[in-house]
TrEMBL record:
Transmembrane segments: none annotated. Residues 29-241 form the Endonuclease/exonuclease/phosphatase domain. One of its GO terms (biological process) is GPI anchor biosynthetic process. One of its GO terms (cellular component) is membrane. This is Endonuclease/exonuclease/phosphatase domain-containing protein. It comes from the Bacteria. It comes from Oxalicibacterium flavum. Pfam families: Exo_endo_phos. Gene3D superfamilies: Endonuclease/exonuclease/phosphatase. PANTHER family: CALCOFLUOR WHITE HYPERSENSITIVE PROTEIN PRECURSOR, ENDONUCLEASE_EXONUCLEASE_PHOSPHATASE DOMAIN-CONTAINING PROTEIN. InterPro entries: Endo/exonu/phosph_ase_sf (IPR036691), Endo/exonuclease/phosphatase (IPR005135), GPI-anchor_lipid_remodeler (IPR051916).
Length: 250
């Protein structure tokens, strides 16, 4: 994966017709789909699609997405077909036997994408998918990411993320599975210092949530109206994480 590739990627667009010309307030969500393997151990992309349809969010950041390889079908393609949204992928692993990573689904056109390599030493490859969205009246920048399991890894990744984007050109939303177990850990303190504090809602594990691993930040902070977890019976079984939804104003 390229390190903060500057060229705009070719994005996959669905036939989304008659979208609202005034989308605000907007619902954005982040969802670690656990490779579409539910808490019952069953691979079932249609359950993930059902959760997305329940949420009806305008923009969705996805993590742990199978992107089509010799072992497993392209789950992003299934979710795009189910929602009718524009879609773009951000693979963190690309081999014949494994294509896997982050993705963004959007009700509104995706103008441009970049990838940010967040890999750390010999640990599992990580990255962020950085996308500019054509939301009517207010262009929006969305960064979808999935950080590492070790504290040193996350500290390095947050430093690189904060250096990679400039919040002055358009509103920025950073969302994803940050894997931060420590409430007062340095990565969270750095993010709060940059974006200001936001509610930390418990999303993991999905059956009995104990940890706020999935997070959404926005700059400017005043645009955030509320954050909520999507904890329906289907969401509790479809993945080991619950989706997190934020409502933002224009």
């Amino acid at each position: 994966m390229s390190n903060e590739a500057d060229a705009c990627a070719v994005v996959t667009k669905a036939a989304v017709e008659d979208v609202d010309n005034d989308p605000w307030p907007l619902a954005v969500a982040t969802y670690n789909i656990h490779s579409a393997i539910g808490t019952d151990g069953r691979f079932d992309p249609q359950r993930i699609a059902g959760v997305l349809q329940e949420m009806n969010a305008d923009v969705i950041a996805l993590q742990e997405v199978p992107l089509g390889d010799s072992r497993r079908e392209n789950v992003l393609a299934i979710l795009q077909q189910a929602t009718g949204y524009h879609a773009v992928e951000g693979p963190t692993e690309e081999h014949d036997h494994r294509r896997y990573g982050n993705a963004v689904l959007s009700r509104y056109p995706i103008l441009c994408t970049r990838t940010i390599d967040l890999s750390f030493g010999s640990r599992e490859p990580r990255g962020a998918l950085d996308a500019d969205l054509d939301c009517p009246g207010h262009p929006l920048r969305v960064i979808a990411t999935h950080l590492g399991l070790r504290p040193a890894e996350r500290r390095d990744q947050i430093r690189r993320l904060l250096q990679a984007f400039d919040t002055d050109t358009m509103p920025v939303i950073l969302m994803g599975d940050v894997n931060e177990w420590f409430v007062w850990g340095r990565p969270l303190r750095w993010l709060i210092s940059h974006f200001e504090a936001v509610p930390a809602v418990k999303t993991f594990p999905s059956r009995w949530p104990l940890f706020a691993l999935d997070r959404i930040w926005i700059s400017p902070r005043r645009r955030l109206l509320r954050i909520q977890v999507h904890a329906t019976p289907l969401a509790r079984v479809a993945s080991d994480h619950l989706p997190l939804i934020a409502h933002i104003d224009g």
